[in-house]
């Protein structure tokens, strides 16, 4: 089949998210004047090594945030955020933190997620996360469409859970593996790994 997005796809469900998968989940924590916030974003990835940098994109808006969501609004207010790596042992908490709560209500509290303080920025992190990346925002870029933004940040501190360092390498399989977003309501737990050597 072939379709032009502006003309519709003719399927019962939009296939776009399912085509680009699996996508890692950036579990973004922020702190702003209204309090702490935590939300998962599947448009997320690393974008550079030196200095280490990440991005996530936010789509749609909440009625109590002008043209965006709590995460982006608070990052614009403070200039910092933390990316918590989502793993299988916390998948229910990741999902619970996606609830459309009013601004000022902490997902940490609502979903019973233990928080800890970051070291290099004034921001909470998920205490039990396999890893957490403390970030300073470098830019927020508006994208085509209404309420679509991409946030870039440079990593200023890295937390790794002790049991997820295996033979000197980060390995979240003790935490249930990376969880990734697929299409529709589907997720995957990444636990089956293989190695390949790049051509010389």
Contiguous runs where pLDDT drops below 50 for at least 5 residues: none
Can you count the helices? 4
Shape: globular
Structural class: mainly beta
Largest sheet: 7 strands, antiparallel
Would you list the SSEs in sequence order as H and E?
Answer: HEEEEEHEHHEEEEEEEE
The end-to-end span amounts to 39 Å
The value of Rg in angstroms is: 17 Å
Order of strands side by side in the largest beta sheet? Answer: 3-2-6-9-10-5-4
Question: How would you describe the oligomerization state of the chains in this entry?
Answer: single chain
How confident overall, as mean pLDDT?
A: 96
The helical percent reads: 10-25%
Please report which band the strand proportion falls in: under 5%, 5-15%, 15-25%, 25-35%, 35-45% or over 45%: 35-45%
Describe this structure in words.
With 200 residues, this protein is mainly beta. It is built from 4 helices and 14 strands. The chain has helices at residues 16-19, 70-78, 91-96, 107-110; strands at 23-24, 26-32, 35-41, 44-48, 53-58, 80-85, 115-117, 124-126, 131-142, 149-160, 165-166, 169-170, 178-181, 187-190. Strands 3-2-6-9-10-5-4 form a 7-stranded antiparallel beta sheet, with helices on one face. Strands 1-13-14 form a 3-stranded antiparallel beta sheet, with no helix packed on it. Strands 7-8 form a two-stranded antiparallel sheet. It is globular. The termini are far apart.
């Amino acid at each position: 089949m072939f379709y032009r997005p502006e003309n519709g796809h003719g399927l019962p469900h939009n296939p776009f998210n399912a085509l680009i998968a699996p996508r890692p989940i950036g579990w973004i924590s922020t702190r702003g004047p209204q309090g702490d916030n935590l939300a998962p974003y599947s448009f997320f990835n690393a974008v550079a090594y030196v200095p280490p940098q990440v991005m996530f994109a936010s789509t749609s808006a909440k009625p109590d945030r002008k043209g965006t969501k709590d995460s982006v609004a608070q990052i614009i207010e403070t200039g910092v955020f933390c990316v918590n790596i989502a793993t299988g042992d916390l998948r229910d908490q990741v999902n619970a933190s996606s609830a459309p709560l009013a601004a000022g209500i902490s997902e940490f509290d609502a979903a019973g997620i233990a928080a800890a303080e970051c070291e290099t920025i004034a921001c909470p992190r998920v205490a039990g996360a396999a890893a957490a990346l403390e970030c300073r925002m470098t830019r927020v870029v508006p994208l085509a469409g209404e309420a679509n933004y991409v946030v870039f940040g440079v990593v200023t501190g890295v937390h790794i859970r002790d049991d997820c360092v295996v033979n000197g390498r980060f390995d979240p399989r003790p935490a249930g593996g990376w969880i990734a977003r697929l299409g529709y309501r589907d997720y995957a737990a990444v636990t089956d790994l293989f190695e390949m050597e790049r051509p010389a």
